[in-house]
Amino acid sequence: MLLLLILPEFSRFIDWALTLGGGVKFVLDGFIAAPAWVGSNFEESLGFLVGSVASDVTALLLLFVLATLLRGYLPLHPDSKLGLELSRSRRIWFERSFLTAVFAAVTAVLVFTPLGAALRNEAGFYVGTLDSLSEIQTLISRETIPNHGYQTADGSWEGTFLGLSPRYAWLTRFLVVWVYAAIFIAWLWRGYNVFREHYRSMDWTPRDDVVDNLRNHNWGIFGLAIVLGFIVLALFAPTIATYPIQENIYEPYSGDSEFKYFDEEAGEVQTALHGDANLDSRSQGEGSGTVSINEYDDYDRYAPLGTTTKGKDMMTYIAYGAQTSLTIGLVAILLAVFMALLLSLASAYYGGIVDLVTIIATDSIISIPIFVLVLMMSVVFSQGDVWIAEPMDGGFLLALIYAFAYMPSMWRSIRGPSLQVAEEEWVDAAKSYGQTPLAIMRKHMAPYVLSYLIIYSSLLIGGIIIITSALAFLGYGVTAPTPEWGRLISNGRQAVATESWHVSTVSGVMIAIVVTGFNALGDGIRDAIDPQAEANSGNAGGGA
């Protein structure tokens, strides 16, 4: 069944994998470039020799951090193989140093020998092959179900799916996307139930109660439906969009943006560029060439949600804007969760000065209002012309700022549970058996607090979407041409009372629905994990 679901959209899955790989490569390139950046700064002020030493030391520190994280996964103990008799603490440092030396040797070979270039060429070959496979036409694609064509003199349509009008051709593709997504989600849910009933070794786990409680939580199910719809909209943006984003938004005057349309005055089919057509289809209020919801413009282009103030297709903008918001939200939350989890476990396990320093640092960040902090950091880094401000026109930078800004509040939210689990008997037992602090945190403490992080993450992601839209409304954060819903509200706010009302209204309604969905899902997960929370909340409210 899974094969039948993947095969029609095989190239789309490859494209998603390539996109994820591109993001990982960007992060790795940043870590690789960090030593050179540090060395160049020292070289400018202290000379070439000091800069080289600073670059090498930075590289070794990064490799040491990587070795510390991966030491627990070593299949053997190098000190035992070498016949060394070391204490537990010395063995840990020896293994970390050994791994660091191995990573440094491998890095030197890849950088200073032809092997590195050969491996890069080999990787480039496979990436190119996958890129070619990602171009294969899928069942749910614009090429299979085209909606952009032109009308002939007799009123029929050319170039559209089965000769349908662009309206019904696009609607057909739109409905097929949601049917496919619904079938895939239903298969995943059915697979989970089959695994739970027939293949799992245990008859019951605490997760079963959470799932069952969430299934009976109407508000949480409503939020889950909204969130799933938002994810589908983002993942299938190239298909749901009425027109290719490259032609309609990014490069409307390129040669690829040329299309045919029927000119009624000339009585013949002519060609135009999306850029020129956009100028005549701008929804800017009274007296403009407004194209409202479910209308065609003068170039036979169908706009399900109308056009923007610059004549660009609203549905294309909304779909890719969802992709922008989802990417920023996920990156920010994952990084914030990772940092908050590390800090909470370390401060709870070690206590003392570690806990005190963490409290002072996080309180200093929390003392600044979240919107002011994000706005300030966004402006400073954007004007600093740093490399991380390039992806998504500042979107990746914004995600990093969110992670830094939201981490303290997430840390404070799980500090109590972390302190509680650090005093449990199973943690003391693990210490007595000689397990390392990192292993104890990873195996015995982290699973206990992760459920709390899931709750706060689902609640915070709605706030991230609102702040991203607010920044775009003010002209900061994600800049043009990357689509962002808040920028639509800003651009169309002057025309709310005119026939171009849809520009601000549609985007504003989308933000409200999605944020409400994430908040509802967060409430549902919270009540599913801790059913007493809802009862206590209700009692407190009644008493008040």
From TrEMBL:
<feature type="transmembrane region" description="Helical">
    <location>
        <begin position="57"/>
        <end position="76"/>
    </location>
</feature>
<dbReference type="InterPro" id="IPR000515">
    <property type="entry name" value="MetI-like"/>
</dbReference>
<feature type="transmembrane region" description="Helical">
    <location>
        <begin position="449"/>
        <end position="476"/>
    </location>
</feature>
<comment type="similarity">
    <text>Belongs to the binding-protein-dependent transport system permease family.</text>
</comment>
<keyword id="KW-0472">Membrane</keyword>
<dbReference type="Pfam" id="PF12911">
    <property type="entry name" value="OppC_N"/>
</dbReference>
<feature type="transmembrane region" description="Helical">
    <location>
        <begin position="387"/>
        <end position="405"/>
    </location>
</feature>
<feature type="transmembrane region" description="Helical">
    <location>
        <begin position="501"/>
        <end position="521"/>
    </location>
</feature>
<dbReference type="InterPro" id="IPR025966">
    <property type="entry name" value="OppC_N"/>
</dbReference>
<keyword id="KW-0813">Transport</keyword>
<feature type="transmembrane region" description="Helical">
    <location>
        <begin position="12"/>
        <end position="37"/>
    </location>
</feature>
<feature type="transmembrane region" description="Helical">
    <location>
        <begin position="97"/>
        <end position="119"/>
    </location>
</feature>
<feature type="transmembrane region" description="Helical">
    <location>
        <begin position="356"/>
        <end position="381"/>
    </location>
</feature>
<keyword id="KW-1133">Transmembrane helix</keyword>
<feature type="transmembrane region" description="Helical">
    <location>
        <begin position="168"/>
        <end position="189"/>
    </location>
</feature>
<feature type="transmembrane region" description="Helical">
    <location>
        <begin position="317"/>
        <end position="344"/>
    </location>
</feature>
<protein>
    <submittedName>
        <fullName>ABC transporter permease</fullName>
    </submittedName>
</protein>
<dbReference type="InterPro" id="IPR035906">
    <property type="entry name" value="MetI-like_sf"/>
</dbReference>
<feature type="transmembrane region" description="Helical">
    <location>
        <begin position="221"/>
        <end position="245"/>
    </location>
</feature>
<dbReference type="GO" id="GO:0005886">
    <property type="term" value="C:plasma membrane"/>
</dbReference>
<feature type="domain" description="ABC transmembrane type-1">
    <location>
        <begin position="322"/>
        <end position="522"/>
    </location>
</feature>
<dbReference type="Pfam" id="PF00528">
    <property type="entry name" value="BPD_transp_1"/>
</dbReference>
<dbReference type="InterPro" id="IPR050366">
    <property type="entry name" value="BP-dependent_transpt_permease"/>
</dbReference>
<keyword id="KW-1003">Cell membrane</keyword>
<keyword id="KW-0812">Transmembrane</keyword>
